[in-house]
Amino acid sequence: MLNHVYNSVNFRLALSSAAIVALSTTAVWAERWDMPMAYSASNFHSVTGTKFAQCVTTGTGGDLEIVTHPGGSLFKGNEIKRAVQTGQALIGERLLSAHQNENVLFGIDSIPFLATSFDDAEKLWEAAKPEMSALMQTQGLHLLYSVPWPPQGLYFKKEVNEVADMEGIKFRSYNTATARIAELAGMIPVQIEAAEISQAFATGVAESMISSGSTGYDRKVWESLTHFYAVDAWLPRNYVFVNADAWNGLSESHRNVINGCADLAEYAGVSRSQEYTGFTLSELAKNGMVVGRAGDKLQRELHEFGVKMTDEWLAAAGKSGAEIVDSFNSMQ
Ligand code: PCA
After folding, report:
1. I need a surface site. Which of 53, 59, 86, 142 has the fewest CB within 10 A?
2. 283 located within any domain
3. Could you list the residue range(s) of the whole structural domain that residue 136 is in?
C-alpha cells in the first residue's frame, strides 16, 4: 500500500493553470511509509525509531515521510514482520529473536551467557550481520539497523535463591530461549508481548519473566512484582527492516539518506540503551523493588542451562551458526 500524496497541493491550486500544466509534467510525488513498532512510545527503541523517521523525512526533503506507530498500535509485535513482508507496511521494527521458530539463526543474540555486555553484543552482531542480512533478503526484507536491549535479568514476586524456587511459576516468555529457560527450570511458559505484560502480571496470567530493567520500567512492573535479579543472560536486539521491493524501488539518493540515518540511529540507539540500563534499574528500586545480583547458586544453575542451550542452538544452527560463533570468539 504505497501512500502517494501530492506535495504542496494548496500551493499548486494557487498557481495559474499554465503553470500547473508545466509543473505537472515534472510532478514530485511524496511517499508516506507507516512504521509499526511493538514497544511503548517512551521506550528508547521507539524514541530512536522516531528520530530515524524524522531524519529520513528531513533528509529526503519530505519526498519520503516515515511515520512511526509505537506500542503495537498499527500491527502487534508478532504481526509486524509479516506485515512488512506482504507490503501492508513498508518498514517496521521487531525483536529479532522472536523469529527463532522460523530459522534458528534469528536466535543468535539470545544464547545464554554467550554475549553478556554491550561490547560483546556489538561484536556478536558484527559477526552475525552478513548472514542475517542475507537471510532477510531471502524473505523479501532489507535489514537497516539494529539496537540491543539492556542485559536480561529475572523478575519474580518472591525471593528466589535457586532454580528449585522457580518450580511451577508462570513465566512470561518472549522468544524460544525464554520459553526453554522456563521449561528447564520447571516453570510454565506463557508467551506475552511486552505491550500486554502489565495486565498479565496484574491478573496473575504471568508471575515472572526474564527481561531488561527497561521493560520492567516501561511497564511499571513494581505494581505486581517485587524482585529483580541481574544475571546479564544476553542482550537481545530489535531490528528495523524494509520491504525489499520498496527498498529497490527507491532512488539511489534516497537510499543513501536512509543508510546515513540508519547508521546514526544504530549509534544513538546503543548509547540510549547503555544509559537506560542504570537509570531503569534505579527506578525499579525507587519504586520499591528489591534489585540486586542473583546469588551464587542461582547464577551457577543458570550457567548450566546456558551450556545446555548453547549446545542445543549450535546443533540446530549447523555450519552457518558455528561460523558466526567462531568469528565472534575470534574477536575476543
Ligand atoms: N524487553 C523486551 C525484549 C527484551 C527486553 O528487554 C520484552 O521483554 O519483550
Report:
1. 86
2. no
3. 2-149+237-277
